[in-house]
């Protein structure tokens, strides 16, 4: 069984027990979160597609970690012009573990 759900403008395909990194969510480590914007649910032979979302579907996950990714260096350089610009960026992320995928209309 897997589900495709949306957080902000990004979509993720997950199964139960999977650990993924998503954009930062303002919830403490150890708490559970519920995602209601489910686009697709697949179980054995059944496929349920939302229009745009599945109303009764939800994905329950637990917050495992809040951290930042490694630094991305941005370098702008123009040769022979004495122009150099260095910049860095570290994106925040939340690591979540998928506990369960639920849908009331999905036939098993």
From TrEMBL:
InterPro entries: bL21-like (IPR028909), bL21-like_sf (IPR036164), Ribosomal_bL21 (IPR001787), Ribosomal_bL21_CS (IPR018258). GO terms for cellular component: ribosome. Keywords: Ribonucleoprotein, Ribosomal protein, RNA-binding, rRNA-binding. The keyword Lipoprotein does not apply. It holds the Pfam family Ribosomal_L21p. Belongs to the bacterial ribosomal protein bL21 family. HAMAP family: Ribosomal_bL21. Part of the 50S ribosomal subunit. Contacts protein L20. This protein binds to 23S rRNA in the presence of protein L20. This is Large ribosomal subunit protein bL21. It comes from Candidatus Blochmannia vicinus (nom. nud.).
């Amino acid at each position: 069984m897997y589900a495709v759900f949306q957080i902000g403008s990004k979509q993720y395909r997950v199964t139960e027990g999977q650990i993924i990194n998503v954009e930062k969510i303002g919830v403490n480590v150890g708490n559970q979160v519920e995602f209601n914007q489910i686009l697709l649910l697949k179980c054995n032979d059944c496929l349920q597609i939302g229009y745009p979302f599945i109303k009764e579907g939800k994905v329950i996950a637990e917050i495992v970690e809040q951290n930042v990714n490694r630094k991305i260096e941005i370098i702008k350089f123009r040769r022979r012009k004495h122009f150099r610009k260095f910049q860095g960026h570290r994106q925040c992320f939340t690591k979540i573990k998928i506990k369960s995928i639920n849908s009331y209309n999905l036939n098993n």
